[in-house]
Fold each of these.
Amino acid sequence: MSKVSITVNGRATAHDVEDRTLLVHYLRDTLGLTGTHVGCDTSQCGACTVLLDGRAVKSCTLLAAQADGSSVTTIEGLAKDGVLHAVQAGFHQEHALQCGFCTTGMVMATVDLLSRNPSPNEQQIRHGLEGNLCRCTGYHNIVRGVQHAAHAMGSAPVAAD
Amino acid sequence: MYPASFEYHRATSVDDALGMLQRYGEDAKLIAGGHSLLPLMKLRLSTPAHLIDIRRIAGLSGVRENGGGVIVGATTTHSEVAASNFVRAKLPLLAEAAGGIGDPLVRNMGTIGGSLAHADPKADYPAVVLALRANVVVVGKSGRESMESDKTFTGMFTTAVQASEMITEVHFPVSGSGNGGAYEKLADPASGYATVGVAAQLKVEGGTISSAGVALTGFGPKATRLSAVEAALKGKPATNDTVRAAAKQAAPSGVTPYQANLACVYAERALIRALERATA
Amino acid sequence: MATIVEPTGALMGASIKRQEDGKFLTGRASFTDDIKLVGQTHAVFVRSPHAHARIRGIDAKAALGMPGVHAVLTGEDLKSSGVNPMPVGWLLPDIKIGEKHALAVGTARFVGEAVAVVVADTPALARDAADAVVVDYDVLPAAVEAVDALEPGAPQVHANAPGNVAFSWQIGDKAKTDSAFAGAKKVVRQRLVNQRLIANAIEPRASAAAFNLANGELTLYVTSQNPHVHRLIMGAFILGLPEHKFRVISPDVGGGFGSKIFVYPEECVVAWAAKRLERPVRWTATRSESFTTDAHGRDHVSDAEMAFDADGRIIGLRVKTVANMGSYLSLFAPCVPTYLYGTLLSGQYDIPAIHCEVTGVYTNTTPVDAYRGAGRPEACYLIERMVDIGARALGMDPVDLRRKNLVPAGSFPYQTQVALAYDSGNYEPALDKALEMLDYKKARAAQAAARKDGRLIGIGLSAYIEACGIAPSQVVGSLGAQAGLYESATVRVHPTGKVSVMTGSHSHGQGHDTTFAQLAASELGLGIDDVEIVHGDTGRVQFGMGSYGSRSAAVGGTAIYLAVQKVKDKGKQIAAHLLEASPADMDFADGKFFVKGSPSKAKAWGEVCLAAYLAHNIPANIEPGLETTSFFDPGNFTFPFGTHIAVVEVDPRTGHVELNRYVAVDDVGNVINPMIVDGQLHGGIAQGVGQALWEGATYDSNGQLITGSMINYALPKAENLPSFETARTVTPSPVNPLGVKGAGEAGAIAATAAVANAVVDALSPLGITHVDLPLTPERVWGAIQNAQKRS
């Protein structure tokens, strides 16, 4: 057991957890933030994607203990005061989600992608999301959702993290 | 999905990490990004009793210059290597390979030290360090060794790094101008690992290939230097014809016709681009 | 009986953004694993590592002594407490059913079969203890490939299924077909493998059960496409739970594609254990578990022959299919390679003689059942490959050969040789539209030019038809279905005029919260926010059959439509009473009930609703309230159709296939929400392309699943797919008043053949006539090498 202190969505959290606790389970089970999902056990599907100190990572392939002292943003921390983040809004506008299970990870990965490349072309979007699997959409509308968000974020100041 | 129990320790310095490795012996493993180790632990294919986290040790991460060459700290992430303007300018082969490992999320955590120490036969970095004649700096209780890449990879998931030692940085020599390198990889559509990966680095002086480093990954127990290809390049005219002829030597023995074909095709593609960069 | 109603109002046919998106986008959905039960314990299953083994003993002593462990339970425990074997929901004549228990009793028959369950305080502790359960196995030889399992001397999977034959089935006229072949000008033959696939919905299966000691009610949360089916099968047939004391809630479900239709062992064990242990019990599959335990799909080996006359008309189709059913018959498995397959073998073509024989075979592998398309992709792949092979053999353009054989527009209803009668269809315009979108002439010219440079570009067509909205109940019942296939809707109008629609359909990605709200709101002149769609909870919704087989709009939507008409009828009666008019003189539009011809004599929707519930002034012969129910049993399937075209380039040096363009023209009848329908097509296309290029579940000779995780089972990724070009033709279905046909599976049905045909087309200058799926670089390169050796 170790005490793990992580700032999650801007709030300090501290809990004693088994050392083997994965970050995704800390978020889901200890903190009750179930928006981050587990879709596989070989670190491939990306449904568990969160931002760790600003970079998108697979929270199923991290120990909570590794994130001790770090800052994590989950899907629950994206919208501000009830206003959807441009990526969330873009996905909604373009029907970039169907069952919604991969969506939270896809959105977080997109946030990171656009922070590093604000105007990606289609190929860059498709490559940028290679760590996130979707079985429902065929990715067609996800690409459009990302483009929608990029366009919206390009024409307005981005809210600070 | 749930690893077996273990104790987690965070090392505050290299000495601290080495001390813990001593204390816990064979039951301990180092963890930085954890993207080679944790997947194994989740499937219970690896069950260390102690994990020593070295990710936040100061000074272990980052890219810096050293006498014209590039030094990459062991805990530098693949993303950082791929994005480094310095690496992209000096060693595009290294940046290119780093930028193709796994996926963007994996690259944000996976480290060069971790990848080299893990020595997956289908990983990308081992071929790159071989082709670039890099030296892997290994620190242990007996001191500091600058291990030649040729001596580093000894077998499937095995390296010459002892259980009580750790990699602290990787030195990539760069001399003068006329250098060009490229990495060509056929990624497995499921795992993203290299079904074949060829790292090629050429130095061209006066229209001749003065040195060549070519290495193959994805075949057999470990990444290997393609010495026959290198020999067919060194001293020859810096032309695509030379490259194409040399690439024909790329197939290791004892592989299927398809694998042999892939080795040659990817060697050729990597070398052509390396040549283009070397003569640009 | 149904006249087609044109979609009315601003909402029908509109791409309304989805009502349900908010919770998914903000991480506030409730997937089964998200739902916490107070005092819950966690189950981990002990699974057979052998494909076939006698279970000699299970030693749980060490496991029981480990921290946090509540129980270790086995198949014997279940059996002795009265838990029955798992039933089969479709019975074919002379079917041989190998008994399947939720936890294996006596024998394990596939790698991954559950033999025991550990219940503990946390999943990690349960896993630790599961590793400590010692099972003594007597390993037996395993039958793996269906074709091999039929060989004399093959290991027998079930003692009561001699020769490993689960069933034999045929359709069509054998004598007529043999005679057609005898007189044919040209016959082409091909062995076609439709490889085993794994659905891999991104949400793993999960279940969580709690038993209320006070009132004897069991509540089960489960990832199901059809919670009422789960309740009926589990309650009445397996666990002996009274249906009215058993509530099944399927909350948000993260994809199904068929794999979440079936009742699985895990939810049976979880529900039973919750009652037995008097603690809530939950389980969530790891992805590796999903690989071995989710029902697999496809796995046909077919010998197909197509006969042509001198003019290139298809005069006969003869098919022998061996269908791998796996180790046990999954819930709907017997109908998939029979009634959902053989009956589609005419495709879009007028084929005068067809005969198909299917042998369902037991093997020591994961059970096989419906996976997106369920039988229809197998049929489409077979026909469309044979048509292309025929075209090549006849020296005809594959487009011309298709055009020559399409059922003409004036020939509907068209009775096929394989039982189905297509009620409507208009195939040529869809074909033409697809060709136009592609610019077929230009594409062929580009292909010819590329060939001169040694580049291998290929163009492949897939003209598909499918049958969906499986019904009517009487017919499917006579064919062996152990269930009806209607759908239900209750429309509950609240006193203040808001509406709750309880539907037996249950979307798991298809957007029913939006499309059904569009339908109801449009019919009632309400805003979409005034309508709530309720689904997935047997405690709130009347019995329904769930969502699969592209049936939700056609059958579920129609049930809603009919219930809404009943609401309007009653509203007219009340309004007429209030207006002192005759109900026959009343109309309803723009949110008002009014007298025809005197629109000022009107009562608003809200007024009528309140009147119904106040009951102060309603006709003497009607009851208060405004709530109606409809169960809709369609008279026939619906028949969506279309033409898809794929353009690929094959790298001759590596065999790599790049899909460069994908054009899809689909006729799904009337469309409630085009955006949602397009989304369904995209997803289906991606899965069909996945089957063509990357996917395939393979076993070694010991029955070990080699492709046991996402590390070696390649799911389509964004970087490997292009954007799709889609369009529609609209031929409304005459079978339901909405004129909708269903779109959920179309992409998966058509795409595999389109891509396969394109790859073979690319390779055809080398003399290659067929390459099996998946078209991996190694396989394609090998075909090229072999062809070059031959020449």
Amino acid sequence: MKLELRGITKRFGSLVANDHIDMVVQPGEIRALLGENGAGKTTLMNVLYGLMQPDEGEILINDQPAHIKSPKDAISAGIGMVHQHFMLVPVFTVAENVTLGEEPISRLALPELNFGRLHVPRVSLPAAATDWLGLFDRRRARAAVRELSERFGLRVDPDAYVEDLPVGVQQRVEIIKALLRDASILVLDEPTAVLTPGETEDLFVIMRQLRDSGHSIIFISHKLKEVQAIADDITIIRRGKVVAERPPTTSDAELAALMVGRSVQLRVSKDAASPAGVVLDVRDLSVPGEHGDLAVQSISFDVRGGEILGIAGVQGNGQTELCEALMGLRPATGSVLLDGQEISAATTKDRLRAGIGYVPEDRQEDGLVGAFPVSDNLVLDVYDRPPYAAGIVMKPDEVRKAAARLVDEYDVRTSSVLTAAGTLSGGNQQKVVVARELSRPNKLLLASQPTRGLDVGSIEFVHSEIVKQRDRGIAVIIVSSELDEIYALSDRIAVMYEGKIVGMCSPDIPEQELGLLMAGATTANGQGNGSGPHRPGTDGPQPAVEMPADQAEPQAEELGSE
Amino acid sequence: MERVTTLAAAVRAPLTTERRHVAAVTFIVLGLINILVFGMLAHAGDAGFELSTAGSGIKIPVIRVPAATVCYVLGAVAIGLGVLRATVPLTRLGKRLAVAGVLVCFLLALLCWADAGAIPLNVIIIAQGTFTASIPLILGALAGCLCERSGVINIAIEGQLLFGAFTAAIVASAFGGLWVGLVAGSLAGGLVGLLLAVFAITFLMDQIVLGVVLNVLALGMTDYLYNRLMAQNPNYNTGSSFAALKIPGLAQIPVIGPIFFDSNVFLYITYIAVIGVQVAMFHTRWGLRVRAVGEHPTAADTVGIRVLWIRYRNVILGGLLAGIGGAFLTIGSVGIFNENISSGFGYIALAALIFGRWTPLGSLAAALLFGFCLQLAQVLPTVNPVLPAPIMDMTPYVATIIAVAGLVGKVRAPKADGQPYVKS
Amino acid sequence: MSDVPVDPMPAAPDPVPVTAAAEPGQPSETPGPAKSRARLTGAVIIQAITQGSSAVVTILAIFLALVVGGVLIVFSDPVVSRAWSSFFAVPGYTLGQTWHAVSFAYSQMFEGAILNPSTVSAAFHGGSIAAIFYPLSSTCAQATPLILTGLSVAIAFRAGLFNIGAAGQWVGGAAVATWLGFGVSLPPVIHVIVCVIGAFVGGAVIGWFVGLLKARTGAHEVIVTIMLNYVMYDLLQYLLSHPAMLQEPHQTNEIAPFPASDANLAHVGGPPPQVGVGFLIAVAAAIAVAWLLSRTTTGFQFRTVGASPSAARTAGINVERSWILVMLLAGGLAGLSAATVIQGTNTQLTFNSYGTYGPDGITVALLGRAKPIGVVLAGLLFGALHVGGTYVEAATLGQVPADIVEVLEGLIVLFVAAPALIRAVFRLRTTAGTGMEAVAKGWNG
């Protein structure tokens, strides 16, 4: 099926998210849509999928104008979408999720009966009656999932609950969901953001298979290497406009320049680390998770002043719980020493006071109070200390003065310090959090996903601030699921998998090896399982040669079929 | 550097408060009450329980047990369950059975204590009363279930009951038809549901605030109309009510017959509704879509399910059911309407819904528990005059607090419950 | 109202219509100099009206509620409703009757609650000047307990808790105040003070218990407070049925003795129903709450917890302690409300003395947008409605029952809390919302 977008324009107030976008996707083609965060990729796809209506322009399918007013129209036009945030109901099974909206209905019937010579034939209720009753036919739902997953090699257990599945498998469920609806154009919105390199490879295999069976695929990404690896052709958009179309053989540098609009440094410039004494020493830390299991299992590591420890890993392998436990936001067992002081029984407030700066993973939920002005957000964890307060009386003037200074220093773009923080852009919100956490005298900085969802300019800014902290002798922990970020910042890399540190390596470890560790592959020299009093070294692990890429699969399946 | 290994249990991270311990402590406290209050303070003598009514054909002998001893045993069992709960990780089913066990022990001990040395309690009559008293609670909880499974918090159950009760009474009186009254009561509940839907779904009002405001409004409105119409004209509040509808045959079964098959039409409607909602919610396309809308409306929207329509429909349906529950309060039992006749039943229904984890059958069980407490408050002071009536009146409310605070555990409401859905 | 935002919020670039919870709203802090200058320009005022600032929405909501209330008056007036049945025959007569019934009811309300023109003319002819202020004085007196229960609900609201339990807390305060009032002998001034403090403590204990349950077990405060209300009603009944406790000796009714005369609050405007010292207590409490919320670290904690518990926790604020403390204060304020009734109007506590102070507190707090100054104004409005309602019932010989006020209150709050509706009805342009800063949290916390 051929898809054409012609002059698509979408405005939000004064902001033009899509500015006369033209794009053609041929049948059996993988078309990459490359652009950085905020360039308008997702808006464009929401328009295509009927979640938003364009202000101008039209969509043509097989050269015929298509009127897509809702996702339903998009589905019947043969468009399927795998959203960045999965559109799956966590408490439903795979089969329920896949068939939702297209549910198979039980055809109620009295069974055939044989009493000796008396033969009663099978009696079916009229279709109208069974449709009205609408009993959900689990058996046929299951069968539909099985059939599709066999046809396209998308292994998944139809009876598993989605919330128990690893993200890679959830993504497959999304693809099956689109295929069940006979999608011939598949839109994958940042599909690799949540995957390990190994899982990404698997996804690419599936994508090629789908393309070869005649499906068209729109692959949205901001990752140059992946786009080069999989796309047949690349459309690059920047600030809502199509700036170029390029073949996948185009160089990194050119694509990056087109995407960002200027030449970009792909790596942060930083000097070699000069680590000092141990600042944070974590011993046998275990953290219970949501379901009574251990999200973090007996982890030990240390961080020295003046070094950046990057904690790599696919999301959901215990990093969130680790950070929260280090901040006293979650009960944990084990020992945490900050500068030799035991802090494992201290409250969050005491830990902040003791000199930990914390940039939480979810800035909107945990880092900021959206309804509060920027000024209050800048003192959110020091509001009760001089000069902002004397006793219980607060001094709003001091708060405002300090806020004005920090806004200036950290280049937060806001009309005033009294503007509600929730109205700022993502990048500026993150600058508020970073400004607050870095403006205190810290011993340790713990930053979780510090640049998620930010544009390149903000990423560069945040990265350089983090490196500055390190150069000042502060111990820094960066938790990130973005390999680029881990490589750009880390002086040492710890890899987390299923609540354990499965490897501690130097930043010159090849990306492929790091990927294997993130997928839980145990290494040949037995350095893998982070349990026990294992003293992490700085040498890279030696992974087994030629690890099959889908090694991690069976485990995932087991989890799912529980 | 010295390595210190400490148990960092001192960190109280409240989002993950140890439910296990809260539940266990509650179990043990209830067990201790069984022993120290009911056991120790029980009058000397036996407690008796009668299992047949005067009219029934088959006579079952009165069961007599030594009150204090039984209380001690029940207390010990509850404490044992508490220790079990604290030490052994139980499955989901196990936890529920433990809660049920502790509650049964507590209630039995309460009965033994109250009846010690007094005339035998008629279990059948208490059971009848329980099932009748819980009708508005069950219907209210079902209304809540329909709303909240689709993602709209319904605090307005109280208002729906009240308005349903008023309308049923006035229509039945004015038109002289009980069935007309029933339908009108249901529609009145549906009207409150419609208001809830419009303000919550279309005008994006905070749903908890909205519910409370609707309750205030329903109370004000019924008070106003009561004083304006009924108080001045008794013909608008005649007090007629449905008679019992004995089901031939089934009503003769000992114990079960008089409880389930010798009641008025509301009881039958209620149980049909429970089964209907349970099946519809968990075994049909309809229910799958409703639950999808309540858990992840965007996901439902992207497969072409009309989120707002489903919410509207369910909120109004819920209102219709709660309206029937309200009609029961007047034309199903006492007949006449009084100001604020629902007296918090809507809120208890809400608690039953939460205690029952947003399922019809769970809500049924919880509503029966609260209905039993309501019934006890009525019966016990007549059996044992020492018990002060106002204190016994507290029972259902205290039971609700204990249930919500000590026994519910971590609630898991539908994920999108209370969040308006706005298309981007 | 210092916080009436006339701020012309620029149309947010964010296309997603803001849901109540994520309301960017206006900064709650005092407006900067630029803003106060802007307030003077006419263009800004017009913009405020067309875009519907919160003050405008509130006024329109009250207006709309009066219209709907008018419909109710028409519906329940037999003469007028009969006229409507023959509307097409005699439309002029019908409309005239309608206008007469509605305007009469509302003008009587105004005369009863604010100002009766006949007292003014009487004063010119040698009548009492004090009589002119009699309605206003009664209004303030009626408003006193409402302001206090309103503050109780409002302060909890700011910390993200919905206190439906002001009624139960009121009972707690009333029981303690009554007992201290008649059961204890103390020197004159001290007796009053002890009783008032006792009432505060009596309410605070009940509130504290709710906060404690919420903090320790996660029990949702909406359910716990409602259930505690009923428990307290029953407890009150129990206490009032035993002479050893609160029942007046030689009584069969459930009624407590009068508080000793030296335990009563002094009069200011005149004997009840005119205003007393209780009103000053209410205003002082409003000022104290305003100061607490906007100028202290405790208030900052409350507001942070209310706006985002998870951000508060991450910033090292003890969310649970805030919950407990705010519920304690909320309960105390409801207890004070009881003190102004029991001690202010020399009332015998009975089994239904709690009246509708609790639910009215909720509506007052919502109408006042959970801000102390707003609560005082809303309390005065509702006080006026109460006084006017009683007056109109007498003036119409029961044709318009005083209960109409309850309906009006409910409607006003319903409309105030749904600014989107008001904007739709009056065709105002929508802007970023002007709803509550904090809203109640759902079951998942």
